[in-house]
Amino acid sequence: MTYIVPKAAWRIMLDGKDLTSTMEPRLLSLSLSEKRGGEADQLDISLSDQDGRLAIPKPGARLKLQLGFSRGTGVPIGLIDKGEFIVDSVEHSGAPDAITLRARSADLSSDLRNRREQSWKDTTIGAVVADIAGRNKLTPRVAGQLAGLAVKAIVQSRESDLALLRRLGKEHDAVATIKAGALIFAPVGSGMTASGKPIPPATIQRQTGDRHRYTIEKQDEATAVEAGYHDLATGKKKTVKAGSGKARKLSRTYASEAAALAGAKAEQSRRARLPVKLSFELAIARPDLYPERRITAEGFKPEIDATKWLIASVSHRLAKSGGFTTSLEMEAV
Asked: Which of 84, 167, 185, 264 fits as disulfide partner to 106, beta carbons 3.0 to 4.6 Å?
């Protein structure tokens, strides 16, 4: 069988117009950083303007990006949609003259960042997320194990919807993501697509990468977490515990037993992920990989292969030379 060298393919739409053929001979570099939760994905594109004929686009322009391969042995042929972006800044530099576009995911460039005043009482996490989704013209997708959690009271005081979602995510070890017009709120690692379906797992093999870094840190001696709450029936402060053994106490006092237990479990889950991490640079890009996708590693040390991994962030890089690579930052789950 003849080996065919993989050739990267990409497509850029600017305000609905396909500019790929114009940009391709001028491309110096293209990089896409995909992140988890309320952090915006970042797209950087550098183009040669040595002949001075390239028009400078205005900030606010909308870009749509697709990445993939046009040919190659062992790679999927075709393009994968990587989303829509809004140009934040444009830079012209030289010599040699070049134009650099910096854009962030369009899903996080809306009213989500505006500060608001609102409060909720005697409701659920699902209802709160649905309210936020509705006023931002998004479809709510809340994981079943979170949707029905009772909420005694939540106050949004001069706080953006995005900040509130981050706060709720931290309290419940969940991630709030906006993708393809959907507001997804699900436990870290649960993996949910914009349509509400589970994210399929993937496998990476050591021979497909250039370098990796595996780090493991000493774990906290505490194996459990305690949280306090006000018992309205007795007027006294009580505690709940998630896990067994020596406990770490949370400084926050919750409004109910259910909220305290949810907070303790969330902190316990978060702390369990912190000590073990894996970064991996693939020699050939994997545009199909993105945050919150579960990964199985093969061909590393037994400890690495035996660990179940979760992608925390991804960087895709395409160079003028034709090189197309992907870097992963993962954490144990």
From this structure: 84
